[in-house]
Fold this sequence. Notes:
about 180 residues, alpha/beta, six-stranded parallel beta sheet, about 25% helix, binds pyrazine-2-carboxylic acid
Amino acid sequence: xxxxxxxxxxxxxxxxxxxxxxxxxxxxxxxxxxxxxxxxxxxxxxxxxxxxxxxxxxxxxxxxxxxxxxxxxxxxxxxxxxxxxxxxxxxxxxxxxxxxxxxxxxxxxxxxxxxxxxxxxxxxxxxxxxxxxxxxxxxxxxxxxxxxxxxxxxxxxxxxxxxxxxxxxxxxxxxxxxxx
Length: 180
Ligand code: VGL
């Protein structure tokens, strides 16, 4: 079985948000279209307490209950069967959806007979990268859907390095039009 994993398509990572990916809005229609091809759709959200060690490194973002923590208003959430909440304890960064505290994602995917994970969302250099690497290391055939991902710093060395690192870990890059 294949699963679509939507990473952190939250207001704070979209234009106007605290930690915006400039093209964060562009990927939303791509993800909505892609979701129609999947029986299993999951989504992660950063869900930080107001005081978090994470904010020593980053501007305050995705605080529980805030507008910034909500999904982008145009994201079709109707097919999302499970939300993965991460960064929740005030100490962890929670970059990877596999670090979610409310659900053990690896076990969840195994229980649903998933062997292929297609990753979309925000942001390419951080949460998408860490989620994709964990997915691959956990034994799932892992795809990153290139036109359904956006970076905080597009065309930066960090973005390029993220792609190099993911590929080194066995992650496969694919275009949304190539997904069956
Ligand atoms: C993220 C930076 C800090 C992300 C989260 O979702 O990619 N980036 N926290």
